[in-house]
Specification:
Length: 209
Amino acid sequence: MSITRRSLFSIAAAAAAVLAALAFESPVFAKGAAKPPAKPAPAPKPPPPPKAKDLIDELTESKDPTFKTLLDALKAADLTATLRGKGPFTLFAPTDNAFLLVGDEKLADLMKPENKAKLKAILSYHVAAGKLLAADVAKLKEIKTANGASLTVDVAADKSWTVDGVAPSKNDVVASNGVIYFMGSVLMPKEPAPGTGPAPDPKKPPAPK
């Protein structure tokens, strides 16, 4: 059976159409099967929350003012671990400049191991149980301290206040286990009145008469 010129022309046209279609075919067919899309990288884990700062951390990291002398004194009096405890505590913290007012000689004497009890009594006078914010202090007349004696609170008409006549230079420095007040003077405990002061240790036998 002879192939007519028209048949040849039709075959050629069909072949051209196929070639044209292949030329414009999508890359998927032109270059084989496409690779599956890459999986997106997992989202980075958020950084861990910052560690809560306790009273000692806050004092250590303070730059203006600084509290190196107080930190050294707390260590000498074995009170550092206490102020890292659960609390909460209210701490009236004398600055380094406040300790300068005490005098180098007297401070050096207090830091001696044989005067540890006296140093601890002074530092304990700066610590109260509970978290007393400035608004709470303004409602009080006195604050019982860990020393056993009480700080005297004087409140002005504008609700500003002093403890033992000293106004804090900064209020409500909140830590994870309490609150700090920056004090420009070292507070010296008053002599307890007869029959007052810390309760005796029940485990300690009474002193012989």
